[in-house]
Specification:
Mean pLDDT: 91
CATH architecture of the largest domain: Orthogonal Bundle
Organism: Anoxybacteroides rupiense
Strand content: 35-45%
CATH topology of the largest domain: Arc Repressor Mutant, subunit A
Distance between the termini: 88 Å
Number of domains: 4
Number of strands: 18
Helix content: 10-25%
Domain S1 motif: 5-65, 70-136, 152-214
Shape: elongated
Number of helices: 4
Family: Belongs to the CvfB family.
Strand order of the largest sheet: 1-2-3-5-4
Structural class: alpha+beta
Radius of gyration: 27 Å
CATH superfamily of the largest domain: Winged helix-like DNA-binding domain superfamily/Winged helix DNA-binding domain
Protein name: S1 RNA-binding domain-containing protein
Pfam families: CvfB_1st (PF21191), CvfB_2nd (PF21543), S1_2 (PF13509), WHD_CvfB (PF17783)
CATH class of the largest domain: Mainly Alpha
């Protein structure tokens, strides 16, 4: 008789009732189906389909609830908790959340998924027999993919990050296009499982895309101008930065190039919202 192990859906026989549930049997092995995991009345001797998992005390248990993922099936599952040094827990549709080990996550904690992000996973067991969520590899993700055509060039695209490496991040769009975001095409590094929005800057022969998370120039000016103006307001209407400021200082403060900073200042001055004097920039308060 096949051994009972977590992560599998098995057909077991109802053997005996106890105050807190039922014991199910496979040969000489028994496993508890807790009262909270039963979705219909049971009778001794009948066969039931159950999913096996470890409960909160680490005991092998059964549930009649169907998991979103198994060892053989993948699905998008939501991150419900983040535990530094341990990993992230995902909701697989049963009463016990399952761990994605830190060993399978990016080295930097800032690139780990946050609550509400989603990961494409199946299930696996480690050497100690513990049930874990298994992140899909590149080949598995590509089975979901749809080839992009040239018509999507320069179009906006929305998708979820499924892989992060030093050179950049990979995403799969809402319609299944695979895109790569080079490190030069972002202001910050997106995290695993995050939803991002960008624009298609190239469509390759294999139907994958290159995507930029940087705004178009006119969008960038508006965004940068708004950031600068909000910073001015937070400082009472004055800041020690102007169009001759050091590029490194501008980058450190605003995370933008000096050229972008000057364009944004130019926009604000053209709109008569700011002025510069003695190496400082001020909000221009119009007379009533």
């Amino acid at each position: 008789m096949k051994q009972l192990i977590p992560g599998e859906i098995r057909t077991l026989t109802v053997k005996r009732e106890v105050p807190f549930g039922w014991f199910l049997a496979s040969g000489q092995e028994e496993v508890l189906l807790h009262q909270a995991e039963i979705d219909r009345p049971l009778a001794i001797g009948e066969e039931v389909h159950v999913f096996l998992y470890h409960d909160h005390q680490g005991r092998l248990s059964a549930t009649m609830k169907s998991p979103k993922i198994t060892k053989d099936t993948y699905h998008w599952v939501e991150v419900v908790d983040v535990v530094p040094k341990l990993g992230v827990f995902v909701d697989i549709g049963i009463s016990k959340d399952v761990l994605v080990s830190s060993d399978d996550l990016p080295p930097l904690l800032s690139l780990w998924p946050q609550r509400g992000d989603q990961l494409y996973c199946s299930l696996k067991t480690d050497r100690k027999g513990r049930l874990l969520a298994n992140l899909a590899d590149e080949e598995t993700i590509r089975q979901l993919a749809t080839k992009a055509s040239e018509s999507v060039f320069n179009q906006n695209v929305r998708g979820r990050i499924y892989r992060v490496i030093k050179a950049g991040a990979s995403m799969i769009s809402d319609v299944g296009y695979i895109g790569f975001i080079h490190e030069s095409q972002r202001r910050r590094e997106p995290r695993l499982g995050e939803v991002v929005e960008g624009r298609v800057i190239a469509v390759k022969e294999d139907g994958t895309m290159n995507v930029s998370l940087l705004p178009r120039k006119h969008e960038s000016i508006d965004e940068d101008a708004g950031m600068i103006y909000r910073y001015l307001e937070s400082r009472g209407g004055a800041m020690p930065y102007h169009d001759k400021s050091n590029a490194e200082d501008i980058q450190a403060r605003f995370q933008m190039s000096k050229a972008a900073f000057k364009r944004a200042l130019g926009r604000l001055m053209k709109e008569d919202r700011i002025y510069q004097e003695n190496g400082w920039t001020y909000i221009k308060h119009k007379e009533e």
